[in-house]
Structure formats: C-alpha cells, structure tokens
C-alpha cells in the first residue's frame, strides 16, 4: 500500500521537473514521526530505477496515523450535525430523540466560544451506522422535527471533519509559513488580505444579527397567531359550554346536533 | 502505629508494591521497589512523565528511589532527562534527533530532585541508543515504539553535551540508565499500554515538525525560512521570557496541588475529592518545608541559567526569577498558583476565561479550517518560538468556510502582546496565501444559557396543573404531522431556515471571490 504511494510521489516530481536536474526528494512515512529519506539524484527522462534506490523495506506498510485518520473519517460519516436546538435539550433528550431512528453512540454539544451567545446550540451525534445517520438527515430535511418544544424544528446536516474537536492530524500534511516584512513585494497584498478578513468577519456578524432578528420576528408573529387561534377555540368552547350556542341555534331555527 | 493516619491514602487509586528495606537517618523511611498509581504499575528505574496543568511540557525522568516518610508522604527521587528545548542555548549548531532527550549528568544542582509521588503522570518509553558497550542494544521494533531516545548526556556542571556516560550518575550506576537486559521486564504489554502521554504529544510534534518541515522543504525555501528567522533577532530571548532552564528548575520542585491551591478552593476540590478541608491546612506547613528543602538545591542552577544565556531577558522574567529565588514562601505560591493544578486539566471554558482575564489569550484568525489544535501549537512555536496551548474552534452553523479560528493561551501577557504586535506589524503568511490575523477577543461563555426563540407555549396551559399521566410522560421528540397547526408553523420556520442557508451561501461565495481576487496578486505562493 505504501509502496504505491511512494511511486506516486516520485512520478509527480518526475513529470514536473525538467530532465537531468538535481533534485532533493524528501519523503516521509505519512504521519509517523519523522522518517525522512532525503536523496539527491540526477533525474533522466528514461530513468525509473530510482525507486529501488530507496530503502523501501524500512518503511512501514501502513502507518498508524493513516489508520487513525481513516477510522476518524468513518466516524465523521456516521455522525449527524444538528442545530437549531433549544437550550433545554440535554444529552438525554437528544439521545432519546435519535434512538428512535437507530443507535446513538455518542453525543457532543459543540461549545460556542467565538459567536455571540444568542445563537442556538448545535451538537454532533454519532450513530452506530452510516445508513442511520443518512436516514436521519434526509428525514429531518423532509419533515420538521420537534425537540423539547415547538414549532421551531431542529435541523440535521452531515457532519464535517472540522466540527470535531478530537480530530487527528491529517497524515502527511505539514503546515508551512513564512514571515513577510515591509520590504516584501507581497506585503501590501497580504495587508489587504488581512483587512479583508476583518471586513468579512463584520459582514458575517451583521448577517448573523439580521438572521437572529428575522427569527425573532417570526417567533413573535407566530406567537400572535397562536394566541388568536387559542382565543378562538376558547370562545367556541365557552359558547358551547354555557348553552349560548344552542339558544342561538334555536333562535335562528338551526339544527345543531349534540355530537 | 505512631503516625497519624491520613485520609488521602484512599482518595486516589494507589497501592504499594515490593518493599525493599528501611533507610534514612533514623531508619524510619520505608523504601519500595514498585507501586501502582492511577492504574499504572511503576517500578524502580522506570522512565516517567511528571506533569502539571497549564504547563505544556511534561518532564521526563527516571525513578531512582521510591519511599514513604514516617508521616506517610510518598516521595520519589527523579534523575532528569532534558528535552532539546530545555538546553537549547547550549546546543550550538547541534540539531538533535526529533525525539532525542539528554540524560542529566555531572556535578551540580538540577540533576535530580525529590518529588511527591503524586506528580507522576504516566510512564514513558525511553530507549538508549548509545554505542557504549555497557548498553544492551534494542531491536528496531523497540526503537520504533519508543517515545524518546537518548545517547548523549548533558553535563549540568559544565553545560556541555557529551557522548560519554560516566560510571555513576547522581551516585547511581550508569547501567541502570541504559536499556535493560532482555530478561528484565521493560517492554511488556502492560507497560506499553500504560504509556499514555498526556497533552504533551504536541511538544514532541513541535520539535518534530520543526525539523521535519525544514527537512521536507525544498532547499530554496529552507534557506528562506532560515533567513526570515534571522530577521527576527529580538525574538529568541524575548519570546520565552522565563529562561527555560530557570523556569524548569522552579517547576522541578514538583509539588502536588494542595500547596499551590490554598487560595483556590475550586482546584482543590478537583484534585482532592476525598480530603477534608482542615486536613489540607495541616498538610501545608509540612509541604512548605519540603518545598524549602528542595528549592535551595536548584538555586545555583537557576542563577547560572540566567547569567549565562542572556542578560536581556525581559522584565517579567527577571521579576519572576528574583521572586522565586529570594521571596518568601508566600511569593512562590503566588507565582505558581495559576500553574499548578495537578492531575486534572481545568475545563477549557474556565481556562480561556481565566487566560482572557490575565491577558494571555489571543484569537488567531484566517487559519485553514482543517488545522488541528496541535498543528496550531506547532505553528505558534515555529513562527514565534514560544510554546502555547491552542484550541481550534470547532466549526458550527455560523463558521465561515474561509476563516479557521483558534484560541491560543500563552504563558505570559508579554508574550501575547508580542505575538499580536508581530502579527500586526508584519505578516505571517501560511502556505496557501493566508495571512494570520491575531487579536484579543473575549470568549463567549458556552455555559451561559443561550437565548432561543421560536418555541411557543400557551401560557394558561403551561401553568395548569397537569394530570399525573401527563407529568410522568417523557416528552418525546417527534416529526410533526401535516394536519396540525404545529406543522404549518414549523413549515414557516423551515422556509426561514432554507432562506438563511441561501443568504450565507451567497455571502460566502462573494467572500471567496474577493479573497481569490486578492490572492491572484500575490507574487509568491509556496
């Protein structure tokens, strides 16, 4: 498995570089702590023997980090991200709610550290099977799902890698960075990019504010609707109860049956 | 039994193992060869982690003596290993192997310490790769499984690194520091399992990725990196104000929480659930004396560390150092109060709140969303040469796809200030053309109940006394049925939800376009 990957690396270098150029090829076993093989060689168009020059047998066939990451990706696929959750929803409520559609393995409420505290809570729920997670997502998209209150429905989406706190490092990735100072030709652009980050952040927070206002408006309006409806039913109830309905019916010669 | 019995005997999982004899001046010390603590079996000459919260790094050392005092205090004597960072001022051009550590040797203070046994944080697999003929060789497998290797010593007297091992290290035969012979149980499965390495994996990966990124980069870029490093002359000394050795030696007098936390009842309950308050008070004086006893040992080393490496250590560091050396017990306690909460980390909520109050919290923005916390720690180490604790903010409904955020906690306010001003004055460019933005931001307290609109109640019904069967019924979550008013209202919500998804999508698309437009102007993307 790894040997395959190994050849891929060589190939890509081979294609990109002009022939007979001195190259430093640095390889590492992905994820495993620094096993780097550095070799400088003269690359010829026709040359493909270079692979054998590396001590392939010393490399692990499968690195533990790769395994770990693969396992983690499975977990992500089994998980559902649920938002629009009321603060009254606890682990237990969420668990009972979703145990109706499968087996809940774990529940993790995502803490909100940077957004305003007004936003609804959200949670990651890991199910036992990927199919269960998929079914929940599609059902909750089709029908409004009520949890600890109504009528605002909870919403489900597929979970993403970035939502998990305990995600392992992606094997093979190395973060690179460099400092730019004022003399650097890119400094101005970088500065603009930084401004852009701020600008975007404030745009997003404005948008968020807007959305929260919309939600509040809808909630208020619905409360009104509900109140009116409730009043109507109450009135009907009371009219029926104190016999006024029957008297009126008799007065207008209506036939009201008592069932 | 002449000694008073202590309740804390039962407050954590602990069992003595094999006794090895009595000792001490009055022959009142009971020595042991092994014990079980927190589910891990330790025996003499095991390599162990000693750790503490708030400190990123654990310390690595070898258990060379284990005993119990007449007052039932459990003590261990530890001969230290140094991480390359600890002695980086004395490394010179030497680039140690990524997981190499150095055995302390020579004459001087700091080679070993007596610590409370409770400071142990797990076993550590250390393999000696020295070619010394007294050292049994290890297999490739063992080597691969090792957490650390060592083949050199660091002489704390002459501050030199050497390949040679003296016959005696801190009065103990050097054979005990080499690998064990095969018939001895060093690498049985249980030991391996016990090798939980707390959070400090990150540090190893720090130094690791440091070197590895260097190695991995094409040569030209490597040069570039080196030159940029040189362009930040002030960085080295300033960024890690308490000089490493000095700080380390302060910390080396590792004491369990009960001393540090006298003024912090909360931490106390965390670490000593079974111990009544008054007991803790009784313990204090004793522990202070033990601290007193241990501290002078380190003093000389402290001073050396300060005078030799750099006189320009920043103000807070000096203050701290002075306080630690000359101050009364009260001072030292204050110094360490926030660093020493043993065994259990404070929850992140509290840690960032506290860090924010102290000004050591920085929010880094515009990272790649897929970075992990430890990668951010690496990045900070790489860019600023300081160690810090980072936490990548988990993405949620309102997280921008273009902007990964992370909270970073530094040790000192001055460091946080430096980081922010560096980020403002210059640009820290990530590989894919993202400049990192850093600023202070008050964290939201997630434990505060979020306000939530949209769940309606009919007031009258809510306050009516519900019949028994209704009160007992578990409120079940459900899909609403299409013939109810609930369904109609819920549909309105769904419409709003879908609308908002579109709003955000449009916004992020525009953001992405704006970012791309600017990125195109970058001349150098690596």
From TrEMBL, chain A:
Query: Which segments cross the bilayer?
Result: none
Query: What InterPro entries does UniProt report for this protein, alphabetically?
Result: Epigenetic_reg_gene_expr (IPR053316), Nucleotide-bd_a/b_plait_sf (IPR012677), RBD_domain_sf (IPR035979), RRM_dom (IPR000504)
Q: Which GO terms describe its molecular function?
A: RNA binding
Highest rank taxon of the organism: Eukaryota
SUPFAM superfamilies reported in the protein's UniProt record: RNA-binding domain, RBD
**Record keywords: RNA-binding included?**
yes
Q: Which residue intervals define the domain RRM in the entry? A: 78-166
Identify the Gene3D superfamilies for this entry: 3.30.70.330
Pfam families to which the protein is assigned, alphabetical? RRM_1 (PF00076)
Q: Which UniProt keywords apply?
A: RNA-binding
Q: What is this protein called?
A: RRM domain-containing protein
Species this chain originates from: Vitis vinifera
According to the entry, what is the taxonomic lineage of the organism? Eukaryota, Viridiplantae, Streptophyta, Embryophyta, Tracheophyta
UniProtKB/TrEMBL annotation, chain B:
Per the database record, which ranges form the BAH domain? 40-165
- Protein's name in the database: BAH domain-containing protein
InterPro entries on file? BAH_dom, BAH_sf, Nucleotide-bd_a/b_plait_sf
Q: Which PANTHER family match?
A: BAH DOMAIN-CONTAINING PROTEIN, PROTEIN ANTI-SILENCING 1
Q: Which Gene3D superfamilies match?
A: 2.30.30.490, 3.30.70.330
- Region Disordered, residue ranges: 228-249, 265-299, 312-331
């Amino acid at each position: 498995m790894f040997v395959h990957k190994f050849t891929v690396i060589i190939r890509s270098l081979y294609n990109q570089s002009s022939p007979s150029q001195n190259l430093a090829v640095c390889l590492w076993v992905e994820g495993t702590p620094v096993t780097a093989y550095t070799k400088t060689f003269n690359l010829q168009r026709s040359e493909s023997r270079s692979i054998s020059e590396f001590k392939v047998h010393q490399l692990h066939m499968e690195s533990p980090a790769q395994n770990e990451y693969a396992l983690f990706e499975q977990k992500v696929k089994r998980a559902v991200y649920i938002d629009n959750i009321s603060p009254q929803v606890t682990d237990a409520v969420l668990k009972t709610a979703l145990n109706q559609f499968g087996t809940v393995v774990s529940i993790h409420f995502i803490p909100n550290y940077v957004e305003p505290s007004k936003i609804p809570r959200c949670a990651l729920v890991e199910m036992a099977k990927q199919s269960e997670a998929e079914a929940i997502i599609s059902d909750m998209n089709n029908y409004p799902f009520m949890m600890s209150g109504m009528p605002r429905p909870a919403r489900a989406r597929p979970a993403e890698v970035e939502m998990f706190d305990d995600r392992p490092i992606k094997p093979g990735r190395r973060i690179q960075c460099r400092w730019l100072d004022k003399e650097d030709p890119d400094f101005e652009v970088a500065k603009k990019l930084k401004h852009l980050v701020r600008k975007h952040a404030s745009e997003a927070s404005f948008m968020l504010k807007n959305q929260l206002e919309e939600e509040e408006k809808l909630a208020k309006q619905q409360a009104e609707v509900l109140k009116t409806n409730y009043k109507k039913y109450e009135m009907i109830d009371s009219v029926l109860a104190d016999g006024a309905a029957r008297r009126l019916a008799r007065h207008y010669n209506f036939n009201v049956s008592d069932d | 039994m002449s000694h008073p019995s202590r309740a804390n005997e039962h407050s954590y999982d602990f069992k003595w193992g094999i006794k090895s004899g009595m000792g001490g001046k009055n022959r009142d010390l009971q020595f042991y060869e092994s014990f079980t603590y927190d589910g891990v079996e330790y025996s003499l000459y095991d390599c162990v982690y000693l750790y503490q919260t708030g400190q990123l790094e654990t310390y690595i050392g070898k258990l060379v003596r284990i005993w119990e005092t007449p007052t039932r205090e459990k003590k261990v004597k530890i001969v230290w290993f140094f991480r390359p960072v600890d002695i980086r001022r004395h490394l010179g051009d030497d680039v140690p192997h990524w997981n190499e550590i150095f055995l302390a040797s020579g004459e001087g203070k700091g080679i070993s310490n007596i610590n409370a046994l409770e400071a142990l944080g797990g076993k550590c697999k250390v393999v000696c790769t020295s070619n010394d003929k007294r050292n049994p060789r290890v297999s490739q497998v063992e080597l691969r499984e090792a957490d650390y290797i060592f083949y050199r010593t660091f002489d704390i007297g002459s501050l030199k690194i050497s390949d040679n091992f003296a016959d005696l290290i801190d009065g103990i035969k050097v054979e005990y520091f080499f690998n064990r012979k095969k018939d001895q149980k060093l690498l049985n499965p249980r030991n391996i399992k016990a090798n939980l390495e707390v959070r400090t994996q990150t540090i190893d990966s720090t130094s690791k990725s440091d070197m590895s990124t260097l190695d991995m980069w094409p040569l030209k870029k490597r040069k570039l990196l080196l030159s940029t490093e040189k362009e930040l002359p002030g960085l080295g000394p300033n960024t890690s104000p308490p000089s490493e050795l000095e700080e380390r030696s302060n910390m080396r007098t590792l004491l369990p929480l009960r001393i540090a936390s006298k003024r912090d009842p909360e931490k106390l309950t965390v670490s000593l659930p079974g111990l009544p308050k008054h007991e803790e008070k009784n313990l204090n004086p004793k522990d202070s004396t033990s601290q007193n006893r241990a501290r002078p040992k380190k003093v000389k080393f402290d001073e050396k560390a300060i005078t030799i490496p750099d006189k320009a250590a920043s103000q807070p560091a000096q203050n701290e150092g002075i306080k630690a050396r000359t101050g009364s017990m009260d001072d030292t306690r204050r110094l360490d109060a926030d660093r020493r909460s043993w065994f259990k980390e404070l929850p992140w909520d509290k840690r960032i709140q506290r860090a924010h109050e102290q000004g050591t919290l920085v929010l880094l923005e515009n990272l790649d969303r897929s970075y992990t916390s430890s990668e951010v720690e690496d990045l900070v180490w790489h860019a600023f040469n300081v160690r810090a604790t980072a936490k990548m903010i988990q993405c949620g409904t309102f997280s921008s796809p273009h902007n990964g955020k992370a909270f970073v906690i530094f040790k000192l306010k001055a460091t946080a200030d430096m980081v922010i001003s560096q980020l403002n004055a210059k640009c820290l460019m990530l590989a894919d053309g993202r400049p990192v933005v850093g600023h202070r931001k008050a964290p939201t307290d997630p434990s505060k109940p979020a306000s939530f609109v949209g769940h309606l109640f009919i007031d009258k019904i809510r306050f009516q006394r519900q019949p028994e069967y209704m009160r007992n019924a578990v409120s079940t979550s459900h899909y609403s049925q299409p013939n109810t008013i609930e369904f109609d209202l819920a549909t309105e919500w769904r419409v709003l939800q879908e609308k908002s998804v579109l709003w955000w999508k449009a916004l992020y698309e525009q953001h992405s376009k704006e970012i791309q437009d600017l990125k195109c102007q970058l001349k150098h993307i690596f």
